[in-house]
Protein: Branched-chain-amino-acid aminotransferase
Organism: Streptomyces prasinopilosus
Amino acid sequence: MTTPTIELKPSAHPLSDSEREAILANPGFGRHFTDHMVTIKWTEGRGWHDGQLVPYAPIPLDPATHVLHYAQEIFEGLKAYRRPDGSVATFRPEKNAERFQRSARRLAMPELPVETFLEACDALVGQDKAWVPAHGGEESLYLRPFMIATEVGLGVKPANEYLFLVIASPAGAYFPGGVKPVSIWVSEDRVRAVPGGMGDAKTGGNYAASLLAQAEAAAAGCDQVCYLDAVEHTWVEELGGMNLYFVYGDRIVTPALTGSILEGVTRDSLLSVARDLGYEAVEERVSLEQWQRDTENGTLTEVFACGTAAVITPVGTVKRAGGEWRQSGGEPGEVTLRLRRALLDIQRGTAEDKHGWMHPLG
């Protein structure tokens, strides 16, 4: 399998410094995009080819393009951070590259080599380095690699043509207003994924399936929806876009991977960070009844959600049909805040990177 070199075709008219700085002053999340994107094609019989960095622009698609009808689409999310010395580094991009391969395999799509994934991300961040926010706070440059099936035709089969792209968006805090607990609605009649399905693949269909339950959570006055397992409707799995952690004093638990839970990069990182800080960090099943019972009897001291976009977000109020309870008195817990700071310090370059997670640019 050949690894394409990214041909640089930068924009002759990038956004001015003043326009870019105005955006970086209040970027929000996923609202603004940098000047460029990377594209790489895959064709059956030829493999990966025509890697290019080009000006950010719309993608022309025929109405019969495969992805529009059969949803062969996968994506990733990772961040680039400005370091104290002004340099830039991405956080664990090889983990995203490996998960991107697993997602591709599940959706019968070609697997992009890890080194090509890294080359594409490096090329975009290198070209649009000025878009990485200044060091300090939670600001970062969010990268969105994704791949779509581009064969034209309505036959139901794996496509014979694909397009891989990377775009980037400057990002502030995922939940504006600082570190404040989110409220959770437990969906007991809708499921996110089933065993043998696509729950452990990062594909748009999983998120589309979550939108109705998320709207129901909003109607119940909650920020996020939590899903249970699809078989017994008993075991806590994850939120619509984040993994969960349960804190029992010095013991920290995250639901074990079952094939219907997305293996989050932040989730994986926190297992190591927690152990580095002296906590016992384990993966095991947690039932909804256990969650409510242990909160009420005081043994479950904190709960938090985690993901690339949100980093770590404390859980405050939990609602289910016929019940409601609060975590940590509705305030961010001590362990949650300690883990959050420890991870952010590694990402921003103010703490030792003992695991070699940061990928410096060039």
Observations:
- The CA atoms of residues 183 and 221 lie 8 Å apart.
